[in-house]
Amino acid sequence: MFRDTQSSWLSTLRHDVPASLVVSLVAVPLSLGIAMASGAPLTAGLIAAVVGGIVAGALGGSAVQVSGPAAGLSLVVVDLVHTYGWRATCMITLLAGAVQLVLGVFKAARAALAVSPAVLHGMLAAVGVIIALSQLHIVLGGSSQRSAIANLVELPGQILHLHGHKVAVGVLTITVLALWTRLPRRIKAVPAPLAALLTAAVTAWAFGWDVTRVDLSGGFTDWAFPVLPQGDWHLVVASVLLVALLAGCESLLCSVAVDGMHGGRRADLDQELTGQGVANMVSGALGGLPLAGVIVRSTANVAAGGRTRWSTILHGVWVLVFATGFGWSITLIPLEALAALLVFIGMQMVNLGHIRKVHGHGEVPVYVVTLVTVILLGLAEGVLAGLALAALLALRRLTWVTVLKRAEGDGRLHVTISGSLTFLGVPRLTRELRTIPAGTPVDLDLNIDFMDNGAFEAIHSWRLDHERMGGTVDIDELHDEWYALAASGAHMLPVKSPPKAPDRWWLPWAQRRRRPEPVPLDGAVAGAQECLLTAGAREYHRSTAPLVRPIFTELARKQQPTHLFITCADSRIMPSLITASGPGDLFTVRNIGNLVPRRGSEPHDDSMVAAIEYATQVLGVHTITVCGHSGCGAMAGVLSGGVQAGSLPGLRRWLRHGDHSLATFIDTEGDRLHSGALDVLCRVNVQQQLENLRTYRKVDEQVRAGKLELVGLFFDIGSARVHMVPPLRPSNAPRTFDHPVAAGEE
Known about the structure:
The protein is α/β, with parallel strands linked by helices and 746 residues long. The chain has 4 domains: 15-387, no CATH class; 400-487, STAS domain (Transcription Regulator spoIIAA), CATH 3.30.750; 501-558, no CATH class; 559-725, Beta-carbonic Anhydrase, Chain A. The protein has helices at 2-37, 42-59, 74-84, 86-105, 109-112, 117-139, 148-160, 164-179, 185-188, 192-207, 233-259, 269-286, 295-303, 309-325, 335-349, 352-360, 364-376, 379-399, 426-433, 453-468, 482-487, 528-555, 575-578, 606-619, 633-639, 649-655, 659-669, 677-693, 697-704; strands at residues 67-69, 291-293, 401-407, 413-421, 441-451, 472-477, 563-568, 586-591, 623-629, 709-716, 721-725. The strands form 3 sheets. The protein has a 5-stranded mixed beta sheet with strand order 8-7-9-10-11. The radius of gyration is 33 Å and the shape is globular. 39% of the residues are buried. Residues 13-360 form the SLC26A/SulP transporter domain. Pfam families: Pro_CA, Sulfate_transp. One of its GO terms (biological process) is transmembrane transport. This is carbonic anhydrase. Its EC number is 4.2.1.1.
């Protein structure tokens, strides 16, 4: 137990402490900027960052998510400050935290995931546009207006009256932010926002520029408990719910996104919502901004190596130390530099990747309506408009019925009905069916996932009428038997029947409808798996062998494969399944990590050499394919420097053949290490094995002569997709051999 505790502390010191320092350097300038955009005291942003780190980090349900003031909430806060005042806004934050706490206790977190991401992305993009327009006026030496339209109208006049030094500071800040990502990796270790503000502050001080300085007066020392908002209590309640729901949704969606960035414990969303609620209550009570989980800081935490909640908690501690011990340094920052930082952040919030995603799912109208309405009318109105349109589009998809008709050569008509058949789709359904000529023989395919009574009555009545007029209707249901059950009078519950596991040979034994029964062998209690194989062989003899016997009878004389297929021994990789190949197509070699030892490498391996020689010089294959896969355990061992091989000396020796892959990975991807590094190495490994193949002279000669093709594949197990992996260099590029080749050596 002591050893486990010691190991845990060592891991925290090694990974979480450095990550917390990096995140705190990102959090300080962003928190100041968001407070400025929210119309709140600048110290309110620092308070929210401290509370988000310490309280939300300690009580939340995500191991690595970082919480703090969020740009997406700034529009709500600035409106609340103008309407009720700052101390009343703090009370609204406190009450919103209480609402989040109650929702978390009652396990309501999953409901927040029902919000369309297109609405959230559109809202954030609109907030980014509004922030950028308002802060651009400050960069130009003026003051922002109350609305985005007013800021846009006033912008030309503001440009005509530029204030030299203030504009220079803003332009300098944006330039540093834009160019920072292109600098060497060692320099980029300093977060871009911090570097930009430091550069602006030092430059303005060195040249004596006339700029506006950040004012921290009335900060931590002027604390007063929040007061209740005065005004229509309906509007106050609406404001509390708006802050609670927006902050909660952003936090929960951020948790889900961050879960895909690391390999640690998955987030408990209800606990996360509870922790966010307590943190918002504390932040409101202390005079801080409302807070939420923030993707920028969370991504920085994962990228910096944060593994546990200690990195989040410590980042809050560092922000507190900075604010109390070095707060004077903040007053050296030009206000125009903070405004320029906000302009840059606002531009980044219009994420083209989000637009591509919503376009791929047909949700661009939701995104655009949300964005435009938020800009023109306000945040709450825009979110409601986006949700309403998303609901309408979802209802339209659920009720959309597709009827495809195709005439067959024998005079029959093939009709396919697809979609969810409800009473809302009955008008279109009956209109399409009544266009079918009387007396026509019809093959009707029902490719549906639901059918209510109204849709059944429409199809059944049409069928009876069509058959009475001399036609025929043969109905084939491709999924659940909705029509057949309804016609038999069966009570159809549940509304959507669970999918039936198809009885297919490629399914694992545990998922087949008729699992092979183990056949006991003499004295074999421990041979359960062998019994399953025996039962599987008997199943093959009973159902499959009669179908494939003619093929194997022909193949028994000679094999003529066209491909040498080299892949991993992983049980989840099925070469014939993922390549849609049959008997006699692939000459297959499998080993740990789909490694091809380079010619002359140690430890020596003749089995792979023999396979390559036989495939290329006897069988005359046209293609050699190396297929890697996601989450490869061998590559995890290579990435760990052999540590994960443990006490397996044979495995450690074999994994030495992956050293070149690791070297290539570090050389090509070393400056982009992230939580998906393992899968990147798995792809690089495929490329390196293609290179290793060309260390064999005969292979290299055939490749350069165009007689042999080397192909790289990567099988993503989670998505069941096969991807092409490009080679490291063209096939006609000359090969430099690492070892001298003796006469006659292959």
